[in-house]
Amino acid sequence: MPAANDLGNSLSVGVIGAGQLALMMAESAEPLGLELSLLASSADDSAVALFPAVSFGRALDEAAVVAFGAGLSAVTVDHEVVSLEALQRLEASGVYVAPSSESLLFAVDKAFQRTRAQAAGIAVPDFVVVSDIADPAIESFLAQHPEGVVVKSARGGYDGRGVQVIPRGVDPRPALTNFLGAGTVVLEAKVDLFSEVAVLVVTGRNGHAVCYPVVDTVQRDGICVEVNYPSSLSDEQVLSAQKLAATVASMVGAVGVLAVEIFVTPEGLLLNEVATRPHNSGHWTIEGTSVSQFENHLRAVAGLAVLEPQPVAPFVTMVNVLGGDAPGDAKAARAVPGAHVHDYGKEWRPGRKLGHVTTLGDNKEDVLERAWHSALILGTPR
Ligand code: ADP
Questions:
Q1: pLDDT digits over 122-166, tens only?
Q2: Which domains, from first to last, does the chain contain?
Q3: 147 lines ligand 1 (CB under 6 A)
Q4: Probe ligand 1: pick from 159, 272, 279, 281, max atoms within 8 Å of CB?
Q5: Tens digits of per-residue pLDDT, 43-85?
Q6: How many CA atoms does the CB half-sphere of 240 hold within 13 Å?
């Protein structure tokens, strides 16, 4: 018999999508007594081998998602590219869906997120939503922002795809025309970045929320390459970032992990992105805190109590392993002292996120050096 949560429900939890997040959810689920199942698009997907029950189907296939979720007590996601109609139907039939179809929209649609955040009084970069190159709002926005702009597809982009930073003096119209060919666009002021930070808030079904420590995220070409705890923010800024994340979490109505990416700028903290699921900026919590983002996410989704996370070392670094010129040497990478190497089981391809390495310790430079040493051995480009 499956275990039951505080609400008396059995804990059959389905995960839609079978990438590395589903893989790490499965790895963290063991102590929770959940009955896990997975909707994968292919037998080659990272997480397939770790789930006791696997169905095959596309996350955008409404009928496949409904058939997968029917009869489960709760459903969550590995990524956002999921049929919202299917989630709505599951919600209507009494399956607990977290993130809900409404919350997910904040992560799926940058125009929706920016518009709702601004209406809620949350600081965001100046922006305008456009769907036609002839929209006069474009010319007035460009005139107001000679410092440069960023062109973003409202939907469909991730890891920097669907985002183009246009520096001062470069005409953004060709990029705009190009992006508008694929749908609605958010045209945004290019802000001066001191740094980028991220905060995870995990909210239980009962509304109780916990907040993870703020981390610095280092991006290259729109891809996160490195995450460092603690962040370089002042104590006051840390509190502001956590407050901002909590405000965003209540706006989104998130249950489970909400990852909030924040720009640190001369004008203060500005909301960048939200993800309504475990996030790359939280992979360090597997070894670096008392309860990982994956365990806390599943706890929330299943209706169990979410736990207050405590860092377990003064410094933690996570470096993403990206495909380089050739596959690296996994054995040598694991032999780097204290390197926790996570392999997502994906086929090597240049630029692809293949895994990550986490290191902990008392000395910031040493922690950073060991994480990179291991990731470089794995072939990650510097
Ligand atoms: P994605 O959805 O692909 O993660 P983001 O919207 O987070 O895309 O943008 C990717 C990166 O582009 C950010 O991490 C940041 O470095 C840069 N960027 C995005 N928006 C702006 C902006 N308004 N000003 C300056 N840099 C930006």
A1: 999 999 999 999 999 999 999 999 999 999 999 986 666 799 999
A2: 12-97 (3.40.50.20), 126-189 (3.30.1490.20), 195-377 (3.30.470.20)
A3: no
A4: 272
A5: 999 999 999 999 999 999 999 999 999 999 999 999 999 999 9
A6: 15
